[in-house]
Write a structure and sequence with these properties.
Blueprint lengths: L5 E5 L4 H12 L3 E6 L6 H6 L4 E5 L5 H15 L4 E4 L4 E3 L7 H28 L3 E8 L10 H21 L4 E8 L11 E3 L7 H10 L12 H8 L6 H20 L7 H8 L3 H7 L7 E3 L5
Parallel strand pairs: 1-2, 1-4, 2-3, 4-6, 5-8, 6-7
Antiparallel strand pairs: 7-9
Length: about 300
């Protein structure tokens, strides 16, 4: 068990957020868990008396976020680990989505995470540091039919978070993007807003629905140990950052020179001057979340 810390977790009532909340409590930490509906967390409050505070908070409401963060910080006297996990899915083709749907989606998946970050930073800075874990997605690296706006929001969060990491490092605040793969979270059911289907896309929609199996992928609990590990990390070394940059540069060069299919881990490692295991540690398989941190992971 690590030294107890105070966690704030958004989107904590189900899926990954619920798994992170339960894992942090089981590891001996104090947790402030927020979501639009926190009734599903009542069993954890009974199981871990005095160590869990759960209350409703809509991350799309900026004023409500700032008020909620003040309440969270006051509950246990500080905030050590903040997990920006709240999110949902806008499912459908780009042409089908209404302005209202697009704005509502980004209000949660992008702006909501920004509001939480803005609200917690004064507290983390005042206490001399802390860790902000931004839950993004492997899908942020490129668009895919039916989930284009989901990828767009996560890509925006990736970019802003990398900039934020550089801005707050001097205050002892570490910002980490955790790019999650596919987990059995119910995102395609309870967390989904669907567009009204246009007939032109009927065949493609059917194909994509067959591909997106919400019962496939590992259970959310399997990602929790990675979050605990990231929360416990000490300050990262510059050496790790240099190796990460070398790997990324080598990959870009090789992709530009060769057909994508010919770019191998061995070739990237040789070009970057690192071992293959260094790459595997930083970019593991799809069944584990990837950690992308400007200071190394």
């Amino acid at each position: 068990m690590t030294e107890p810390k105070v966690w704030l977790i958004t989107g904590a009532s189900r899926g990954l957020g619920r798994a992170f909340t339960e894992a942090a409590l089981a590891d001996g930490h104090q947790v402030v868990a927020v979501a639009r509906n926190v009734e599903p967390l009542e069993d954890l409050a009974g199981k871990y008396p005095g160590r869990l505070l759960a209350f409703p908070m809509d991350v799309a409401d900026r004023r409500g976020v700032f008020e909620g963060v003040e309440r969270a910080a006051a509950a246990f006297g500080r905030l050590d680990v903040v997990v920006n996990n709240a999110g949902g899915l806008l499912y459908g083709m780009v042409e089908e989505a209404t302005e209202e749907q697009i704005r509502a989606h980004l209000d949660v998946n992008f702006f909501g995470a920004v509001w939480v970050a803005q609200a917690v930073l004064p507290h983390l800075r005042a206490q001399g540091g802390g860790r902000l874990l931004q839950v993004t997605s492997m899908g942020s690296g490129g668009g895919m039919a039916t989930v284009g706006f989901y990828g767009a929001g996560k890509a925006a969060l990736d970019s802003v978070s990398e900039a934020l990491s550089m801005e707050v490092e001097r205050f002892g605040i570490k910002v980490t993007n955790v790019q999650m793969g596919g987990y059995n979270t119910g995102l395609f059911t309870t967390g989904t807003t669907a567009t009204e289907a246009l007939p032109h896309y009927r065949t493609l929609r059917t194909e994509m629905e067959e591909m997106w199996g919400d019962t496939t992928g590992p259970e959310p609990e399997t990602a929790a140990p990675v979050i605990l590990e990231l929360a416990a990390l000490p300050d990262h070394s510059r050496r790790k950052e240099r190796s990460r940059q070398a790997i990324l540069a080598a990959t870009r060069e090789l992709v530009a020179e060769e057909a994508y299919e010919k770019v191998t881990v061995e070739a990237i490692a040789a070009r970057a001057g690192v071992g293959k295991q260094t790459i595997y540690r930083r970019w593991p398989s799809k069944r584990r979340p990837r950690c992308i941190d400007p200071q190394g992971c």
